[in-house]
Design brief:
55% of the residues lie in helices and 8% in strands. The protein has 146 residues and is mainly α. The protein is elongated and about 60 Å long.
């Protein structure tokens, strides 16, 4: 459940959809005003007003990023899987130099979880660490972690 603030948008998934399951149920916590826009009006506004079009596209892009991150978090088998996937995607030369704090933030995990993942992958012989540099020593084995 989300809490909306003044100026927030809801129902964007239903605007261009024929599926009724996208209908939003809103419960107001206090007296509120809501502006409902029909699809033909939104079409006209998007075609005639560049600022509205750009803001709406920014909003949709933000939602896509948010939902993609949620899906990725749900589909990965914990910190080891996140680290393995990241290293496979971001180590074209087989090595990556990055501070642990930055890497933990990129993966959306705590530093403690990252260090446990490092230890598990190192003890399996899949990676080697030296300072801030992580070297992939067994790509096939790392893929098996996924």
């Amino acid at each position: 459940m989300s809490t909306l603030e003044p100026g927030n948008i809801f129902g964007a998934a239903a605007l261009y959809s024929d599926f009724s399951q996208f209908a939003a149920t809103i419960t107001a916590k206090r007296a509120s005003r809501c502006l409902l826009l029909e699809q033909n009006l939104v079409d006209r506004l998007l075609s005639q007003e560049p600022t509205i079009r750009e803001n709406y596209l920014r909003y949709l892009t933000g939602r896509i990023w948010f939902l993609s991150g949620r899906l990725q978090a749900l589909s990965q088998p914990g910190a080891e899987g996140k680290l393995a996937r990241y290293l496979l995607a971001n180590c074209p030369q087989g090595a990556l130099t990055c501070p642990a704090a930055n890497l933990a933030q990129r993966l959306g995990i705590s530093r403690a979880s990252l260090y446990r993942a490092f230890e598990a992958l190192e003890s399996s012989g899949l990676i080697r660490r030296s300072g801030k540099t992580i070297t992939v020593t067994d790509s096939a084995g790392l893929e098996a972690v996924l």
